[in-house]
Amino acid sequence: MQLANKAAVIGVGDTDYTRDAGGRSALSLQLEAALKAISDAGIQARDIDGIVMPSPGGPVVAEELVTNLGIPDLRFSTGTPLGGAGPVAALQCAAAAVAAGICSHVLLTLGRTGRTGQRIGARIQQMPQFRIVGEFEAPSGALAPAQYYAPMARRHMAMFGTTSRQLAEIAVTTRQHAILNGNARMTTPLSIEDHQASRMIADPLRLFDCSLESDGAAAVVVSAADRARDLRRPRVLLAGMAEGHPDSPSAITQRADMTRLGLAKAAPRAFAMAGVTPADIDVAEIYDCFTYIVLCQLEDLGFCGKGEGGAFVEGGALGLKGRLPVNTHGGLLSQAHIAGMNHVVELVRQLRGEAGRAQVPDAEVGLVTGYGDLGDGTLAIMTRG
Amino acid sequence: MSQTMPGKPMPDPSPDTQPYWDGLAQGRLMLQRCADCGRIRHYPQPMCAACHSMATDWVEASGEATVHSWTVAHHPFHAAFRADLPYVLVTADLPEGVRLLAQLRDAEAEALRPGLKLRIGFEQNEAGLTLPVLRPATPG
Ligand SMILES: [Zn+2]
Q1: pLDDT of residue A115
Q2: CB contact under 8 A, B73 and A254
Q3: pLDDT above 70: residue A380
Q4: How far is the alpha carbon of B140 from chain A, nearest alpha carbon, in Å?
Q5: H runs (alpha helix) in chain A
Q6: What is the total count of domains within chain B?
Q7: Does residue A78 have a pLDDT over 60?
Q8: Span A211-222, mean pLDDT?
Q9: Number of other CB atoms surrounding residue A60 within 10 Å
Q10: What is the predicted ipTM?
Q11: Among A269, A296, A227, A273, which Cα is nearest to A383's?
């Protein structure tokens, strides 16, 4: 069975993104986002018959969504435990389920109280996928994602001449987009000089190379493409999807080429499924836990060659008037760290022409990536259908 | 609420990894080797990915290393490392075909470049855990 264009995203929703949701639970935030996505889709909560949770083991389980939304007959429930690659992996999983006829309308929600509840840095040591680095690297002082990923960025700099100012270009452009969004945590302009003056976190990564732990939630509804034709919003078709896992998935230290992510394996598969090339992409929402991760993914997606990412991002190339508009909502760097579910929501809005002041004119083909758990990569190519 | 300072993270060895930690306690970096095909692997795992044998023995690393990459920790992600900041974490290639992550001693990050020759040493931390460290092969 060929999965291309068999499923569509028919509804999206999100909460306000804040530093602190005032004591609201992750479940409460996810329910708010879910209701918005269901309403946006033009269906009823009782029509939901599938749930894919991108972060199983997180604070919310499918049963709680069933109980609160009053879902009478859930036929499919699973999860995609790939960290920040989970939301886009969940799109592929939901598409496969509706294409196979297992269920009709699949709800995906992700939300957390990242700052006030479970801080990312505190959780990571307890997660089984980090057991290896926890045993062998944490005792020496490698404790957090910034410290795991910084050697990848340093290696890229040493091999290819990539600079911190090039990483700054990504942070600056992303901030410009957040300012246009209206639902973003960071709303003051950022310059390359501001970036260069920001404190070092894990050299070469500075404060403004890092994303924002945030409170908030986002949700989407995926349905069979033929069932989506009569709904009130334009269909956004899932044209190509793929998931890729890096060599040495449990330890970046032991990865033969630490400048190559799992996305490098996934990208050719997703582009082939969609029947498009990087040159066809009008807008790209690229997982941006750190600026360097954007630069590396641009290479692994094939927008430029390995080692050419630094030059590619210079001169505002990722801006709305640049060669490839990237993270038009402000990303994890400046909108909020909702583990990339906010990237999925933004791509759908772009392809519907609902992205407000950050709308890319005539956006018809776009992509969204996920990245997580030390290098897992996911990619979905969507088209206005 | 009383504030107790958490200690540095300690390994929780499994039978597969215990010989590595026992080696460090004696000032030796021990690497796991497939007893059937001879392939060396790190970090320790129950199975050889090349031949699927679960028979293992252990060999002592030569002590040589070269720089692959590095980072300098400036932010205290863990309170117990605050007093150590800034510290340099080096990812080093070993001639045995695997890599080692260890803190740098007796040199600054500015001196590092890929391929620079290093030497493996050992240091006991305040919790009594012996960890590998890396020093320039040529002092100065
Ligand atoms: Zn073997």
Answers
A1: 53
A2: no
A3: yes
A4: 22
A5: 26-41, 62-69, 86-99, 120-123, 131-136, 145-160, 164-181, 192-197, 263-274, 291-301, 309-313, 341-352
A6: 2
A7: yes
A8: 94
A9: 23
A10: 0.96
A11: A273
**Are residues B117 and B83 located together in one domain of the fold?**
yes
Last residue of a domain, one of B23, B40, B60: B60
Read off the tokens for A340: 């990339």
- C-beta atoms of A136 and B87 within 8 A: no
Facing residue for B89 by CB, picked from A121, A140, A200: A140
Residue B81 belongs to what domain range?
Answer: 62-140
All domains in chain A, ordered by first residue = 7-118+211-384 (3.40.47.10)
Q: A149, A203, A205: which to substitute to probe chain B, counting the most B Cβ within 10 Å?
A: A203
* pLDDT tens column, A224-282: 998 877 777 889 999 999 999 999 999 999 999 999 999 999 999 999 999 999 999 99
CB A129 within 8 A of CB A83: yes
Q: How far apart are CA A86 and CA A99, in angstroms?
A: 20
Of A1 and B85, the structure prediction assigns the larger pLDDT to B85
Q: Shortest CB distance from A203 goes to which of B74, B101, B129?
A: B74
Both B67 and B136 in one domain: the answer is yes
- pTM for the structure as a whole: 0.96
Per-window interface: B 108-127 vs A, CB < 8 A: 109, 113-114, 125
Q: Which of A125, A137, A250 is opposite residue B101, by nearest beta carbon?
A: A137
**Residue A161 reports pLDDT greater than 70:** yes
Task: List, for residues B11-40, the tens digit of each pLDDT value.
Answer: 999 999 999 999 999 999 999 999 999 999
| Interface check B66 vs A, CB under 8 A | no
Residue of B nearest to A259 (CA): B69
Rg (CA), chain A: 19
